[in-house]
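Reading group handout, session on sequence-to-structure problems. Before we discuss, look at one worked example. The prompt was deliberately terse, the way you'd type it at a terminal:

> structure Gp5/Type VI secretion system Vgr protein OB-fold domain-containing protein

The input record follows.
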Amino acid sequence: MSQRTGSGLIYGKFPAEIVSYNGGTRECVIKTPVGDEIDAEIEYPIGDNSRNTEISISKGDKVWCEYIQGDTRRALITGWRNPKKGNSTGTRTFSHANIVLNAKSSIKCIVGGMTFEITSGDVKANGISVINHVHKVIKEGQDTDKPR
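And the output record:
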């Protein structure tokens, strides 16, 4: 809950709603609990450099905010608010126009007992190379054996 100090500054988190988002500047206009619409900067976790990535932010998204140094003209979005209904469970979903995964050595996906790995030189599924696997053809027109 926000608290006003004797200096006129307000400290503490308050609930807000996204009115608009500018992807180029990574800034939003938010609506405060009293209905004011003010500019807000987004606080990113230290492991998430906003210059190289963008998160999906939509009008109506519910967020937690603070005023920067208690100044009600400068808001900082500190995180998402729990909508308390309609939440998905059991699945992490990434929804963007484009997704880039940048790895120096490899990207590995393990689903159940299956492994899918991408390296700078090959793609493998369960240890079988997509580039270098071989099929043994028995006779023309017949099915081939499984790749090795």
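Points for discussion. First: The chain has a mean pLDDT of 86. Second: The chain is about 0% helix and 35% strand.
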